[in-house]
TrEMBL record:
Catalyzes the phosphorylation of pantothenate (Pan), the first step in CoA biosynthesis. K(+) binds at D117. ATP binds at D6, I7, G8, N9, T10, R11, V12, K13, T120. This is Type III pantothenate kinase. It comes from Aureicoccus marinus. One of its GO terms (biological process) is coenzyme A biosynthetic process.
Length: 241
């Protein structure tokens, strides 16, 4: 069995796989990583291999703890990839984006595929039907947009993301929701349309913590795939065994 760990900017995702089948997944806060990993190895003593993707903070104590239980490998620029990476600066490419592209390549081979991760940031990553990763786009996520309005102005309140009532906000809160939520959905639809103009017959995958918010409101047809990052990590682990 395999254990894959994605340490993101906000939370930590863990997935246990039996070959290519996800048998358990969990999302925890950063400070609960050690406790969660110990519990997983007690529950699944058959775990033999581990894979770690790190974007957020992970101290040496956590990495040492993971290595006590099984052979853990770190996703980095030295990791062998099942696709061609045409990114100009591969050393700066986030490992979460690599895992997402690997998952897209695994599930949708021989297709032009755009994978959108709606999380702390909103990332767009494109892999062609010939297995070439060309790059993508990075934009602020919903929470980041709400926080920016609050932190960079003197009087605008910090709001939680909510469905917008319409284009015209008739009070300050509705105006913020329109300017953030409505505008972000329009932006995502526009980005998808721009990619479709360049890459016909495009498959679009949506994942991430805010995927449910966007998925209900986009005009474009998408495939919601909440576990694609974990599945991409497991695919990379199996590919590198």
């Amino acid at each position: 069995m395999n254990l894959v760990v994605d340490i993101g900017n906000t939370r930590v995702k863990l997935g246990v796989f039996e070959k290519d089948r996800l048998v358990f997944d969990q999302v925890v806060d950063h400070d609960l990583l050690a406790t969660a990993v110990k519990a997983l190895f007690e529950r699944y003593p058959q775990i033999e291999h581990g894979f770690l993707a790190r974007v957020g903070q992970c101290n040496e104590r956590h990495e040492k703890l993971l290595s006590l239980f099984c052979s853990f490998k770190l996703l980095n620029t030295e990791t062998r990839l099942p696709f061609v990476n045409d990114y100009d600066t591969p050393e700066t490419l986030g490992v979460d984006r690599i895992a997402l592209v690997a998952g897209a390549h695994h599930h949708y081979p021989h297709q032009n595929t755009l994978v959108i991760d709606a999380g702390t940031a909103i990332t767009y990553d494109l892999i062609t039907d010939r297995g070439h990763y060309l790059g993508g786009t990075i934009a602020p996520g919903l929470q980041m947009r709400y926080r920016a309005l609050n932190e960079f102005t003197a009087s605008l309140p910090l709001l939680d993301p909510q469905p917008y009532k319409g284009l015209l906000g008739q009070n300050t809160e509705d105006s913020i929701h329109s300017g953030v939520s409505y505008a972000a959905v329009c932006e995502m639809d526009g980005m998808i349309n721009a990619y479709k103009e360049r890459f016909p017959h495009l498959t679009v995958i949506l994942t991430g913590g805010d995927a449910h918010f966007f998925g209900k409101r986009l005009k474009n047809s998408i495939f919601a795939h909440s576990k694609i990052l974990l599945e991409g990590l497991n695919f990379l682990l199996e590919y590198n065994k």
